[in-house]
Amino acid sequence: xxxxxxxxxxxxxxxxxxxxxxxxxxxxxxxxxxxxxxxxxxxxxxxxxxxxxxxxxxxxxxxxxxxxxxxxxxxxxxxxxxxxxxxxxxxxxxxxxxxxxxxxxxxxxxxxxxxxxxxxxxxxxxxxxxxxxxxxxxxxxxxxxxxxxxxxxxxxxxxxxxxxxxxxxxxxxxxxxxxxxxxxxxxxxxxxxxxxxxxxxxxxxxxxxxxxxxxxxxxxxxxxxxxxxxxxxxxxxxxxxxxxxxxxxxxxxxxxxxxxxxxxxxxxxxxxxxxxxxxxxxxxxxxxxxxxxxxxxxxxxxxxxxxxxxxxxxxxxxxxxxxxxxxxxxxx
Length: 332
Ligand SMILES: NC(=O)c1ccc[n+]([C@@H]2O[C@H](COP(=O)([O-])OP(=O)(O)OC[C@H]3O[C@@H](n4cnc5c(N)ncnc54)[C@H](OP(=O)(O)O)[C@@H]3O)[C@@H](O)[C@H]2O)c1
Fold this sequence. Notes:
The protein has nine helices and 15 strands. It is of the alpha/beta class. It has two domains: 5-125 and 319-330, NAD(P)-binding Rossmann-like Domain (Rossmann fold, 3-Layer(aba) Sandwich); 130-314, Dihydrodipicolinate Reductase, domain 2 (2-Layer Sandwich). The strands form three sheets. A seven-stranded mixed sheet has the order 10-11-9-12-15-14-13. Helix 1 packs across helix 9 (316-330) and helix 4 (128-144) packs across helix 9 (316-330). The model has no long low-confidence stretch (mean pLDDT 97). The structure holds NADP nicotinamide-adenine-dinucleotide phosphate. The site of NADP nicotinamide-adenine-dinucleotide phosphate (NAP) has 28 residues, from helix 1, helix 2 and helix 9.
């Protein structure tokens, strides 16, 4: 690969794709050329990169000729169909969808945790709620060995893409104006509501989103013995996912130790001054790169357990930023 890369974004017009475009620009990623791909619906649309206008092209099997890095954010079906074409053309694929995450030959990477797994071919970006959780868990696992995680998520609508952002905006206006509310993206009204339902329900009673947190966490931390008990909830925030996490460890653990451990860990900002009402907030994490951790406290019911609250911008660290951080590692 050259020092500058020919880059393609498949799904450039979506919530994650747009964020990729802006992060490539703000991090001054070494882009030699940029190809923006989406469905036929968006072909011809103009998007801007570094002051230059680029026409969106329809994604086809021939879209990846001459491309070094193909960033995919167009859904699992599109990735399954087109990522192999991109690899065939010689590109490294970094895929945001769930299509290949659990394939044994595909690395599932969060650079702060397992950058060593990166290699050419297809590299999978984990699920957004898993990414922010494992960034906070990695230093704890290294020091105390994690046995079990109980996690509840409070996930923003931007995690469901552009249409969900528009739906929360519209429903909020309708509720406040006393108009009837229509739900299209979600099975129920999301405005001023919490839905304990993200992605489809599986036979075991959990949702696909919840099982992603179980399986992806084990793969990224390279430890199949870790037990994960998840509940994933969609809430009516636009940006940033929040998570309440209880971690049980093999070694005794204390809130004070975990606080200083996390303060020195990559990609983490500790915001934990409850006396001053300071703790991580979804609206503060929006637009930021780091994972924010606070409310770090001993589990009063178990000396080998700890509680904390984790917040990150799902479109950045949960998707676009993580993918571009992987791409940045390719040249190293
Ligand atoms: N949002 C998040 O926080 C998040 C986090 C982690 C992972 N992801 C994953 O990232 C992917 C994209 O999510 P998103 O939230 O950005 O969704 P989105 O806003 O709905 O955007 C979807 C993108 O895919 C394109 N697309 C859809 N069908 C296509 C087709 N047949 N051929 C070519 N392009 C097609 C769309 O193009 P048109 O505009 O032309 O329709 C659009 O650019 C999904 O796999 C999602 O699971 C999302």
